[in-house]
Design goal:
The chain has twelve helices and twelve strands. The chain is of the alpha/beta class. α4 packs antiparallel against α5 and α5 packs antiparallel against α6. The protein is globular and about 60 Å long.
Length: about 325
């Protein structure tokens, strides 16, 4: 990784125009990692990257530092040429979404990711499947390059780590904790950051609570399965983490699945596990993710996806 980081800085120094993007429907790690890296580049190299996204950004992330500088891709000239495109936390090429033309036309593409991915789109890949969040890799790049760390960058990196580890519930090693300790020493207030994200609309909170209350349980209560219908999907803020968290607190539940009817014949699947690896189930559905937090988007109706999910969990 040391050589890759060295080349990263060479590419940034030589670029006159840079675009940065994460995956479609950004979560905390995707959004905050993009904003943190853009700010680091601007502050340390005098280049102002264009930050773009596709999909929807959850309401609870609306107040993160520098949020206004990332633009919906339809508000950016897709014919604009960039010397360098940086794709972060994307997992799978299909997840880039609307900003893909920027990637295709860029002179050089760098990817920074912590997802397992066999179809890399970057000519330079700074990836680590063992990192708890993409922000962990951004932090390493920052420290390796001796870049200055201000309060906004520190808060963004901390937010990214908090959200992707579920406040450290999904941390697989001590790196994220050590990094957070350094960020706290630099002035990050974890309690304030968590409170900053406690700003979901009332209808969203009510929907997620109702979704959890109406969940079904299978295989002796080990699998909790909940559904968000199309008429309610517009009120869902992000991936339904509150519903997933509530169901994960029930005694005896080992796996949690949330099925979201995003469009007719398009079902979003979010999967969580308390102990065992479930990314293989997401892969079987055409998606991917991490060992205990994964997902997919399936082009089929709700009844068929539900049946398929139940069949995949039968042997677990």
């Amino acid at each position: 990784m040391e050589q890759s980081i060295k080349e990263f800085f060479e590419r940034v120094r030589n670029a006159k125009s840079i675009a940065i993007m994460g995956h479609k429907n950004p979560d905390g790690d995707s959004l905050c990692s993009v904003l943190a890296l853009a700010h680091l580049i601007e502050e340390n190299f005098g280049i102002s990257p264009v930050c773009v996204y596709d999909g929807n950004i959850p309401e609870n992330l609306s107040n993160v530092p520098l949020r206004p500088r990332i633009k919906y891709f339809e508000r950016v000239d897709m014919n604009q040429h960039f010397d360098l495109a940086i794709v972060m936390d994307y997992g799978n090429p299909v997840h880039v979404g609307g900003p893909q033309p920027i990637v295709d036309k860029a002179d050089f593409v760098i990817e920074i990711d912590h997802h397992k991915n066999e179809n890399n789109i970057g000519q330079l890949c700074i990836n680590d499947e063992n990192a708890a969040a993409t922000a962990v890799i951004v932090y390493r790049i920052m420290r390796a390059g001796g870049l200055s760390l201000d309060s906004r960058t520190a808060d963004l990196l901390a937010l990214a780590i908090l959200t992707d580890t579920g406040n450290f519930k999904f941390a697989r090693n001590g790196d994220a904790l050590r990094i957070m300790a350094d960020l706290v020493d630099s002035g990050v207030n974890i309690r304030e950051l968590i409170e900053l994200m406690n700003n979901k609309p009332r209808k969203t909170v009510q929907l997620e609570a109702r979704t959890a209350a109406n969940a079904e349980f299978f295989y002796h209560g080990r699998l909790a399965l909940a559904v968000v219908e199309k008429k309610d999907y517009k009120y869902l803020d992000g991936r339904g983490e509150m519903a997933l968290s509530l169901l994960g607190q029930i005694q005896g539940v080992e796996y949690i699945v949330l099925l979201k009817e995003q469009k007719p014949e398009q079902i979003g699947v979010s999967i969580r596990s308390r102990k065992k690896t479930i990314d293989k189930i997401a892969i079987a559905l055409g998606g991917g993710g991490h060992e205990r937090a994964a997902g997919a988007v399936v082009r089929d109706n709700m009844a068929n996806v539900r049946a398929r999910v139940l069949e995949l969990f039968k042997g677990e």
